[in-house]
Design goal:
The mean pLDDT is about 95. The chain is mainly α and about 160 residues long. It has eight helices and no strands.
């Protein structure tokens, strides 16, 4: 069994890794963060009809659980913030989409904004990425990217809808 197959079988057979690796999306050979965010979009489509309170509570649960899930997976792998760990992308995208206007345009705009903030990592996102360790460190930069994306999305919605 090759190292790649071993890793895939390890990831897919461990519940912690399976969640941390975004149901396997983090195993994408290129751009696993983008692949994880695409899966987050699919999950968002299942949840977008929730009322604001329920959606916000679900998002908070994803973020809180992610600290443990990402931290434990990272610890088990012996690698801090392995590139395939994408649960943090789920959290960041869900934060981005809090109170988002309905429609595909806003889903795509949210996706683009989140990926831009997550990749470019302007301050304080980069600071959090470099200075906070463990599961919280893995999650925090994506949550901050989600908050920045949320702010820009809400500003765009204000000017284009209202």
């Amino acid at each position: 069994m090759s190292q790649k197959q071993l890793q895939a079988s390890t990831i897919l057979s461990s519940p912690v890794h399976f969640l941390a690796f975004g149901f396997g999306s983090g195993l994408a050979p290129k751009a696993p963060g983008t692949a994880g965010t695409i899966v987050a979009v699919l999950l968002y489509l299942l949840c977008q009809s929730l009322d604001l309170l329920s959606y916000s509570l679900l998002t908070a649960a994803i973020c809180i659980a992610g600290v443990w899930i990402c931290g434990k997976s990272s610890e088990m792998l012996g690698v801090h913030d392995h590139g395939g760990i994408v649960w943090d992308e789920f959290a960041g995208y869900f934060v981005t989409m809090i109170a988002a206007p309905p429609g595909w345009v806003w889903i795509v705009v949210g996706f683009i904004l989140f990926r831009l903030f997550d990749i470019l990592k302007p301050w304080p996102i980069e600071w959090a990425d470099q200075h906070v360790d463990g599961g919280l460190g893995i999650m925090l930069d994506d949550i901050l990217a989600g908050l920045a994306s949320f702010a820009v999305l809400q500003i765009l919605a204000y000017f284009f809808i209202y």
